[in-house]
Amino acid sequence: xxxxxxxxxxxxxxxxxxxxxxxxxxxxxxxxxxxxxxxxxxxxxxxxxxxxxxxxxxxxxxxxxxxxxxxxxxxxxxxxxxxxxxxxxxxxxxxxxxxxxxxxxxxxxxxxxxxxxxxxxxxxxxxxxxxxxxxxxxxxxxxxxxxxxxxxxxxxxxxxxxxxxxxxxxxxxxxxxxxxxxxxxxxxxxxxxxxxxxxxxxxxxxxxxxxxxxxxxxxxxxxxxxxxxxxxxxxxxxxxxxxxxxxxxxxxxxxxxxxxxxxxxxxxxxxxxxxxxxxxxxxxxxxxxxxxxxxxxxxxxxxxxxxxxxxxxxxxxxxxxxxxxxxxxxxxxxxxxxxxxxxxxxxxxxxxxxxxxxxxxxxxxxxxxxxxxxxxxxxxxxxxxxxxxxxxxxxxxxx
Length: 399
Description:
41% of the residues lie in helices and 12% in strands. The chain is α/β, with parallel strands linked by helices and 399 residues long. The chain folds into two domains: 23-248, Aspartate Aminotransferase, domain 2 (3-Layer(aba) Sandwich); 254-396, Aspartate Aminotransferase, domain 1, CATH 3.90.1150. It has a seven-stranded mixed beta sheet with strand order 1-7-6-5-4-2-3, with helices on both faces. Strands 8-10-9 form a three-stranded antiparallel beta sheet. Helix 5 (114-126) packs parallel to helix 6 (149-161) and helix 13 (369-380) crosses helix 14. The mean pLDDT is 95.
């Protein structure tokens, strides 16, 4: 439950394309192949419900690199909702930006509100800081939470009022459960850079291909990104750019495949969520991705007495030593280290095996749906089921 990598096999259409284009050895333009950039822009605008088409497209070696490059290109301090993904803060150490930390807790499902954002912008400026950019990640790693249209519209209004650039990390957009995702760029197109890729919904993390949509209003930032690319990674692998083109064209076989993989993520994640409910750990139902971020504070006294556990690092270490369950401590995500919070990943299963059991889930939502889902996880994802049993044993003593 420590490492999060979507486990499904590479779709046959993409495998075939990679083989067919393996002879392509020329450098591509620094911003990416023109055909891919056009296809990616049109696909993302439609999938993410972005109304404007006034965006440049940058292709990079993963969205992580593109997020870093944007941070490097845009001066000023970073507004950082915590907890949030582990690489954002290390990137600011390289860019030498200051961080305005916005702590969020389980009482708000770890979600940023417009009022809290406005308050932190104003307070940080009074204290001499210069916030210019916000990273918003949704569906979120580590929490599995996402934002409603109304919430995004309110955050967009605050960012427009204060001239804050939004770096919208939407890498999990197509692993949003119930197939709904809307980008904040729909409400703030002139001030939002959207980053995404293929690593989550198509399990192509090792392909290292990310996409950034940069609004025409930020054309100077786009030029800086091209310069950074030219002087660092040059361009993304040419066979990879050709090979993934079909993934941005609403391919008749790839789209159903994405839907199947997303439903499996949903089923497995809910299985782990129900385990938390059984342990009386309150947690909002995850809305996307393949992570959860529960707070085990209700067990604080007994954990301290039993194993001298006082913070998230202690908890992650003792759980690994005692039950051989790997997790990540909340401190890794910029959270208060004293809080007993862990990031749980739900993808320790063989994707091909899970797909072979897919029809066992069933298409109806009848009374026995939960029973079928439980049987599916226990048959197709036995390590996830075993991890849940060990969590229960560790925290409650139940066998």
